[in-house]
Design brief:
The complex is a heterodimer of chains A (about 425) and B (about 375).
Chain A lengths: L17 H16 L6 E5 L14 E4 L5 H12 L5 E7 H6 L1 H10 L3 E7 L2 E2 L5 E2 L23 H7 L4 E6 L5 H9 L3 E7 L6 H4 L5 H8 L44 E8 L4 H14 L3 E7 L8 E9 L13 E4 L2 H12 L5 E5 L12 E5 L1 H5 L4 H13 L4 H9 L9 H5 L7
Parallel strand pairs in A: 1-2, 1-3, 3-4, 4-8, 7-8, 9-12, 12-13, 13-14
Antiparallel strand pairs in A: 5-6, 9-11, 10-11
Chain B lengths: L5 E5 H12 L3 E4 L6 H10 L2 E4 L3 H13 L4 E5 L1 H17 L3 E9 L5 E5 L4 H5 L10 E3 L3 H17 L3 E7 H5 L1 E5 L44 E3 L14 H16 L7 E4 L5 E5 L3 H14 L5 E5 L1 E3 L3 H7 L4 E6 L5 H7 L7 E5 L7 H8 L1
Parallel strand pairs in B: 2-3, 2-4, 4-5, 5-8, 7-8, 12-13, 12-15, 15-16
Antiparallel strand pairs in B: 1-9, 5-6, 7-14, 11-13
Helix pairs in contact in B: 1-2, 1-6, 3-4, 9-12
The chains are: A alpha/beta (about 425), B alpha/beta (about 375).
The structure holds thiamine diphosphate and iron/sulfur cluster (SF4).
Iron/sulfur cluster (SF4) binds next to loops of chain A.
Amino acid sequence: MEHKYISTDVSIFCKGCGHQLIANNTEKALQKLGLKPKDVIFVTDIGCHGILDKISEVHTFHGLHGRSGALAAGAAMGINNPKKKVIVFIGDGGATIGLQHLVDAAVRNVNMTVIIHNNFLYGMTGGQTSGLTPHGFKTETNPDGKQYQNYDLSSMLSNAGGSHVRRLVGMGDFSEELYQAFKVQGFSSVEVMELCPSYGVKFNTGKKVTDFIESAGMEVKLFPEKIRSPYTQNERNIASSLFNDCKAIPVKYKNSLKKPLKIVLSGSAGEGAQLAAELFAEAAVASGLNITKKGSYPVTVGVGFSTAELILSPKDIQYTGIVTPDIFIITSNDGLNHAKAKLSKMKKGILFIDSSLNPVAVDPGVEVIQYKFRELATPRSAIFLALDVLLKYVRVFPAEAFENVIQNSKIGAKFNMEVLKKAEVPKK
Amino acid sequence: MKKRQSILTDNSRLVMESLAQAGCNVFIGYPITPANYLYKYATQRYDIVQDAPDEITTLQWMAGYAAAGHLPVTATSFPGFALMLESLNMAYMMELPMVAILVQRLGPSTGTATAGAQGDLALLNGMISGGFPLPVLCLSNAKDCWDIPAKAAQIAVELRTPVVILTSKEMMMSLNSFDFSSLKKITPVKRKFYSSEDTYLPYKPGKNLVPEFLPLGDDKHRVRITSSTHDTKGILQHSTPEALGNTVRLHDKIVKNASKLSLYELDEDGGDTLIVSYDVTAEASREAVGMLRSKGKKVSLLVCKTMIPVIKEYNKIISKYKNVVIAEENLTGQLRTLLFGTAGREGVKGVNALGKMISPNDIVREVK
Ligand SMILES: Cc1ncc(C[n+]2csc(CCOP(=O)(O)OP(=O)(O)O)c2C)c(N)n1
Ligand code: SF4
């Protein structure tokens, strides 16, 4: 027969290597399938089996050790064409290091066939033990035999949901089995059990491949087939632009700012510091100002401190950090603890601090305003009240701007606006 | 002048929209702070979004999609980027266009996920085995977050290479007001595929040393893509002259086309002092320059945006200055070492910080 997919007349493997048999059977199975060579893509791994790349007459994609499963899945999903056949050639070594990729392709039922060349060891690197090496099998690195069991790859792939999963002994003509796997739309795999003449046979003289399959209790069979639709790329419902929900903010209010104003809010996580700062920022923009807002919180967002740094400026802002704030707002104990270092740098400006907190030593140049933010507004709205009071006290831009933004925001319906409206302004 | 249209956003939005308008249509994601906003925006905007089970898979899937003719993007931070390294080398060798956004955070290791840093430049410089340059472009303000990603996509396609966009936590996560009307129009990147009837040689150098591209699975031509040392046909070779020539071409392709990716900002003011910076510290540097000049000090500023390959212009510019202050948020001065080696140069000093942003005053103090 004329070769169409693999030049099997060129021998590239050691004499008697099962990989050659797999190549021959693959050629035969593909001939049965009758696809055009340009409709077939071989994705080969690093290992002896991977040299097949050289003698293949189809599209070839040759990447890293163990990653062919993922590389093929990416290509199959990217090509997204049921007429194109993606076939992966991988060893037991590649299947060990890249196990996750194979399981994942089976879970998604990606349209591809994986041929696992399971010769129980790493052939290319000299016959070391892999995850698929069975108990008792001797290798370069386990001359007394492997101490524990192998994992049963085909069972795992079948359990993961691969449509068509088979294990067979790599002897004689198994092109029909490969053909059955190639025909599948979705994930299929064929685990071919073989011995590496150069290392496997040498270390385990007199043993047959079937001896190990039997003692390991691995089943040689077609696992129950799954009727599942293959992975297909569905059209996503997407925005035509990320600016669709980020519209220009019209300037409706006036501001009285001549130079940048730096505000730090420091409260507890879950008490709205970040949202309050964002809405405040929006109000500042609606008042014709430039603004930056930086948030800082521990890795777990629900506990501990939460601080926000705001810079308001009539001009463009470059550096977004705040070394010494002009205004500090502290509404909780977590906030106070986190604020101490920065607070000690303040030599002037204003500190708004919740009345419930222990008095804190600040530079005499700093004006301290104690206010019952938590009591009047509840802890969840304390920072909102503090920002509102700040605006009424310092008059950077109208508090009305901030109140309107809150009202129109996602929290507007539930927010108690009266607390802000009725807030008393501290006396100068 | 156009009427100012202020929007309020983080720069992640600018980056992802810029890439989308440039033609990137696939995003493969694995969550990590501070790159999560980028992932979130991608899910709202990209034709294809995949949640990968890890960052090795991420890069492998991207390579698969890229080979199939798509232009994929991912975003990560050091822990994820470290897992991507071998696969990035693969994509580099295969010459697959893609964009990886690296949002720096405080290391080593997991470090502090929610603290910024500029700690990964040294890694990027050496990440391709053999010391080959993989283009790295860095964002220094909101404007860059719009202009540079589109440029990165264009370079990825034109030079058939992965491109890294380097940025950091504050740059991607802070909210800022921004004049929407100042955004330049982005022209989508044109993809030109091999169209001749002649046998397709996937690694035959074309214009600018870049081989013509054809997606895997083409109906007419056989396509071979490989990351092993290979000849122009894409066939594995041990070390034949043709194959080694191909490997050298990977280096030359980037270096000889460096003018295409020469991006920097230079603000000269006479005098003999130059401040050099990149990424988030560039903003502090700009402010420091303003402060110094308002006090009558003549000082110039170089903001590097093309980080790798190190472009010739940098040395040309820097060599004119007796005093050079390099400001970067890391302990050891990675840009300084990249430009001057460990021996340094007389008159060159660093402003460095770890775990906190460098302020304009920190820089001003060093210049005086
Ligand atoms: C990340 C990585 N680790 C290790 C190697 C070295 N390596 C090359 S081939 C191979 C083993 C191949 O064994 P297997 O996949 O079983 O295929 P075989 O050679 O037996 O056909 C290894 C470990 C590598 N190339 N990449
Ligand atoms: S070393 Fe083993 S697996 Fe590799 S080609 Fe030789 S016989 Fe086959």
